[in-house]
Amino acid sequence: MSLKKDRIVTLLIMDFAEIGQIFVDDNRFKDQVVKFPNCFKNPQLCSEFIKNILALIPLEEIKAIAFIFQRDKEPITAELILKRKLRDFFQEHEIFCHFPQLETASMNAALLNIKPKVKEGECIAVIDDPWLDMVRCRIFRKKRNFYPFCDSYEFSFDQLPDVRRIILLRHKLKHIIYHTCPNNSSFFIKFGISDTLKDVQNVFSDIRFSILQKSINDAFSDAIPGIIKHLMDGNEPKYMINHFCNTEFTISPSSVICTNGDHLPFQKSVIRNIKTANQFLTLSEKESGEIKRINLNQYFSQKIKITFTLDIDMFYDIKVESLGPLVLPSVEHVLEKSLKVSNGEKIKIVFTQNHFLIFVLTNGKKKAIKNSDGLTEFPLYISFAEEKPITGKAAFEVLEEKPTFVIYDLVKLSSKNVHEIKASNWPFKLTKDSDNETFVEFDTFRGRRKTSPDFFIGMILKFALGVIEKKTEKKFEEIGIEFQGFGISKENFVECFEKAAKRINLKLTFL
Fold first, then answer.
1. 503 vs 459: CA distance, rounded Å
2. pTM for the whole thing?
3. Which residues of the chain have pLDDT under 70?
4. Coil, strand or helix: which one is 431?
5. Among residues 295, 326, 357, which one ends one of the domains?
6. Do 103 and 71 meet the contact criterion of CB atoms below 8 Å apart?
7. Which of 83, 247, 272, 500 has the most CB atoms lying inside 10 A of its own CB?
8. Final residue of a domain: which of 63, 84, 99?
9. Number of domains present in the structure of the chain
10. Are 13 and 68 in contact (CB under 8 A)?
């Protein structure tokens, strides 16, 4: 067997199935199927799925791999997690990875097999056999060597004459590709796909008409290698549609930000007013419902800019930026409104680059708690040089003699972007596991250890609670957290701090 890295692998996976179809280059693989554990429900099974693929074709032979997911039952968020894990693995091994939509692949297959002859600006239509008496028609307009999506119709079969009239009024339709199931496809007929080829031909008798009789699987094996080569090499193929969105995304209150048929990659920005307190921005997808929620209380401005992006693999992102002059509420006001503490006192911890400060708010007045040296700043250092870890100034004093035993820059370590902002002179080491989780390796009294950043934040929070209880003689189950002097959004730190607080049954409000 050749070990030349030149094979293009395609997998077709249904979210309800236990097996998937596998193709190598433009041929179906001899075993035809690969076992698919339900990675949508359990992303940890992704490594097992990858092993099943590599049992059929060696990793060293794969140049590129494409996954086509037909998602009927699972939310788009589950698909996104699975795709990220697959992409990270194959890109780590320098293998090009692509996630074409089922519809994009099937439309490209129709074009490649039929090779319609139309002029610039003229249109073709791809019509499928009716499913449950509903006909679906996609319109594509020729632009150089590409065929961008321009319109879509779904209608009952008895509406076909009326739809024909509408299509011909709106588009220069010159060629129809009809995708029919093969004559022996009793399975499709049993489940509602009827053969209406002759009726469609009669309605469009004056339009050039071609029939694609290949199965969906065989058509895919023709199309995907061409798509991959175009994306990798940049060469324009003769027959290819542009990638397009096949669903709809909305932001609250109800406003469509990306719709079915929008060309990919896609980016759109909208400006919104922040009208009330405790307002949330939600991103929803047509089939999955709400997929992301953003608390707008963190943006202290009257207006915000919302930017939604969607790439050709359907990886989505939404970013929010403040616009105009800042309108900053007092921290004390936020504490009074946010923290539900029955004893009348509220606690705020302010984290800076190298220290943290503790404030007690009583009847609108703020007082800083002092450490044993009479200072309000508590050093953010933890030493593991002794059997019992030590925190603060005593830990800082260990740094010069035993630097690999001391952890510092704790807030930076808690950032989502820690690998981008890490310091080159840190005596401890950052690593990632197979799930892309960050870990810190360091020396301890009992030897080398590895743990996640939230472990250190949990230690600091527990230490701070001890100081607070000693000074106030009260226990607090909820405190406010503020970050100063980092130059990036507090959202970068929230996830790690919340994990840390969960370790010690503490509730946090981020100010």
1. 9
2. 0.62
3. 1-3, 15, 26-31, 131-132, 181-195, 215-217, 220, 236-237, 253-254, 275-278, 326-344, 364, 424
4. strand
5. 326
6. no
7. 500
8. 99
9. 4
10. yes
